[in-house]
Each structure stands twice: as structure tokens, then as C-alpha cells.
Amino acid sequence: YCVCSKCSAKKQNKLSAATHYALKYIFYSENEKLYSFDMDENFKKELELFALKYRNYNCDKQFKTEKFLD
């Protein structure tokens, strides 16, 4: 998934409006409010996949705690 204007114009891997709104909420909310909203399960999966792809793109290693949680 990509949210840049170039990919959005091509409509490639476009996030749903609900997931895009959730990302904006997460980015701009106070820490205390981060866990105060709920999402439909399908959008949660889309958000999780976006976060995983974002992390893989921007970080070149897997953390030990992540291996433990899987």
C-alpha cells in the first residue's frame, strides 16, 4: 500500500477511506487517545498490512520481539 500522491493518482494499492482516516487519527492524536477507537476487522487487517509493509520498506531488520510475538 502506498499513500503518496503519485500512487494515489494511479489508484495502485489504494487504502480504503476508513483505513486512511485511522492512520491520520493515529498520527495526529495524543498518546492517551491512541487506543480509544475501534475499527471493523477488515480495516484492521488492512491497517496491519500497511504497517507491516511500511516497516519492511523503512527498516532493514526484523526485531527479536516481533519474532517472539509471531
Secondary-structure map with pairings?
Blueprint: H1 5-10, H2 17-28, H3 41-58, H4 64-69
Number of helices: 4
> Would you identify the regions where 5 or more consecutive residues have pLDDT less than 50?
none
Q: What is the alpha-carbon Rg in Å?
A: 14 Å
- What is the CA–CA distance across the termini? 22 Å
Mean pLDDT: 78
Net shape: globular
Structural class: mainly alpha
Largest sheet: none
Strand tally is: 0
Strand content: under 5%
Structure report:
The protein is mainly α. It contains four helices and no strands. It has helices spanning 5-10, 17-28, 41-58, 64-69. α2 packs across α3. The mean pLDDT is 78.
Descriptive tags:
single chain; 70 residues; mainly alpha
Quick structural gist:
With 70 residues, the chain is mainly α. The protein is built from 4 helices and no strands.
